[in-house]
């Protein structure tokens, strides 16, 4: 069994069976980088169910679970989704492309990431599973005699499930990437897949066997640079 793949499944009673554990939680968190190059090998339905079972264990406000999953495996539908995605990318890429870079290291990093992003856009239909995350358009603001209590957007109760899904995929040796370019033409996605208008299509996650290597992705802002202690702006060095 290759490193990073756990022979596990959720049984029909909702319990988690683990025959062998090879990937620690922290290692999975640290190395679950976005994968944008995939093999065309199929993903088993059992693995998809395992990822879904992990997703619904994520916390949500009041345990309301304000999300639906739409699994797209049909090759014709994947092709049509890819066309919509590419149409969005054709507009988005030139709009975000930086004109200047502070140094060669930053430029090379951006170019490397952009090549992978272009590859995904050009080959999305070949990824065997597309996972769409749907959220009903609801307002979670609560009111009392003093007025509204804006405790946060509904999205805050959805994205933990998205992260759980992606981390479960990592534990199974499967790659994912969080994408949202389809939202530029979201109505076309709804029409294609018979999604009711009341649902936002928050994310499209490709799911498949990656060609890339797992590892800790570079971050230009380390934890010490963006963390304050007790008062905003009070920094500490990690010993």
Task: Produce the secondary structure layout.
Blueprint: E1 8-10, E2 16-18, H1 25-31, H2 45-55, E3 68-72, H3 75-96, H4 104-123, E4 129-136, E5 142-144, E6 147-149, H5 159-171, E7 175-176, H6 186-193, E8 199-208
Antiparallel strand pairs: 1-2, 3-4, 4-8, 5-6, 7-8
Helix pairs in contact: 2-5, 3-4, 3-6
Can you give a write-up of this model?
- With 239 residues, the chain is α+β, with helices and mostly antiparallel strands.
- The protein has a single domain, classed as NADH Oxidase, CATH 3.40.109.10.
- It contains 6 helices and 8 strands; from the N terminus they run ββααβααβββαβαβ.
- The chain has a 4-stranded antiparallel beta sheet, with helices on both faces. It has a two-stranded antiparallel ribbon with strand order 1-2.
- β5 and β6 form a beta hairpin.
- Mean pLDDT is 90; it is low at 13-20.
* Uncertain runs: 13-20
Strand content: 15-25%
Q: Strand order within the widest sheet? A: 3-4-8-7
- The CATH topology turns out to be NADH Oxidase
**What is the annotated CATH architecture?**
3-Layer(aba) Sandwich
Overall SS class:
alpha+beta
Number of domains: 1
How many angstroms separate the termini?
A: 37 Å
How many DSSP helices? 6
**Rg over CA atoms:** 20 Å
- The amount of helix comes to 25-40%
**What is the N-to-C order of secondary-structure elements (H for helix, E for strand)?**
EEHHEHHEEEHEHE
Mean pLDDT: 90
The assembly state of the depicted protein chains is single chain
Number of strands: 8
CATH class placement: Alpha Beta
CATH superfamily: NADH Oxidase
